[in-house]
Design goal:
By secondary structure, this protein is α/β, with parallel strands linked by helices. 31% of the residues lie in helices and 31% in strands. The strands form two sheets. A seven-stranded mixed sheet has the order 3-2-1-4-5-10-9, sandwiched between helices. A three-stranded antiparallel sheet has the order 6-7-8. The longest helix has 19 residues, at 12-30.
């Protein structure tokens, strides 16, 4: 199953429109995320001053983009949802932006730091592997990646669970009055994924976030900071 993923129910265009339509409603539910801000600040402390930073899935820019820009870092955000990018441009005008899928993004330069927070769930397991490799390629030697995610803690007997990759594909998850189909990795699965791409995991942390949205369960977060080795 690992590299023979079934197609997801939604196309990229529909995914982009879905998130564009949520817009500020999503920010209201997720913008006041203190544990995420704490994780971002720890990751930023590892980067040089005026570091170049990429966010894969910038959303509305709150809280990550705003935190990065306030720290004096050079911020570039990409997102498939044009509506989200329009909001982000207004709320974090110091940044630069592109409306593009993170899988189709082609950077002109390498970055000191890359962050992806809750923006990868609708990727298949195979696409997760591709994104991890791309992030490694886009990161400068000695640079750092931050992943904010929710790990799979369900039933390993689930039909879609892949014991080799340690992830479950096609998991249906309630979200802000909708149901989205996501891919979830275990903690070990994330380690395999990132180390397989070439990263060294230097820090992990668990926390809990309670979204301000109906029909959305509390989210046990898992933060992973990984480094691209300075030398091959």
């Amino acid at each position: 199953m690992a590299l023979n993923d079934p197609p997801k129910p939604k196309s990229k265009a529909l995914c982009g429109q879905f998130w564009s339509d949520l817009g500020l409603e999503y920010q209201h539910a997720y913008g006041n995320d203190a544990p995420l801000v704490k994780a971002v600040q720890h990751w930023l402390s590892l980067l040089p001053s005026r570091a170049s930073v990429l966010e894969c899935g910038c959303g509305t820019g709150i809280p990550i983009g705003r935190t990065i820009a306030d720290g004096g870092y050079r911020y570039h955000g990409i997102d498939l949802a044009s509506g989200m990018v329009d909001i982000c441009k207004k709320q974090v005008p110091e940044g630069t932006y592109e409306v593009v899928s993170m899988l189709e993004y082609n950077p002109k330069d390498l970055y000191d730091g890359i962050v992806a927070s809750l923006s990868h769930f609708e990727l298949t397991p195979k696409e997760h592997v591709e994104l991890a490799r791309k992030c490694f390629q886009w990161t400068k030697p000695g640079g750092y990646l931050l992943i904010s995610t929710i790990v799979f803690g369900g039933v390993q007997e689930l039909e879609s669970y892949d014991p080799e990759m340690e992830c479950a594909d096609g998991v249906r998850n309630p979200f802000m009055g909708h149901e989205i189909v996501v891919t979830l990795f275990t903690k070990v699965g994330w380690r395999k994924l990132l180390e397989g791409a070439g990263f060294e995991i230097v820090h992990t942390e668990d926390d809990l976030f309670v979204p301000k949205a109906k029909d959305t369960p509390d989210e046990p977060r898992y933060y992973i900071t990984a480094k691209k080795p300075s030398r091959p």
